Amino acid sequence: MSRTDPRATLTPIDDVGGHTIYADEDRGTYHAWCDDDAYEPASTAVVIAVASILEVEPDELEALSDAVDPDALDALVGRWRRAAGTAVGTVTFSYAAHTVTVRSSGEIVVEPASQRVRPIDG
Q: What Pfam families does UniProt report for this protein, alphabetically (predicted)?
């Protein structure tokens, strides 16, 4: 049985430097993925996603290290990637008034404190 790409059920709302940010309007969450095609630290993907959601520049956010150890996050996600899909896990932390969950699949789920997804442009 083939698995459906979870992005197929989400609405793209922004594209920042090749990173598409998706909204799940039913759940009130945002989703992004770490780049599987090139080494990109998960910590960078988290900052880019949250900055896009808040519509600010990444350097306007609090330091990610105030929320989670970026090196430890990158090492964990790197370990998951090297396990080639056999690793299953998540890490969840609060960052910039949002709850961020990074999954072993590379998916980043951002849950705003307000539970309100910004409207789709168009």
A: HalOD1 (PF18545)
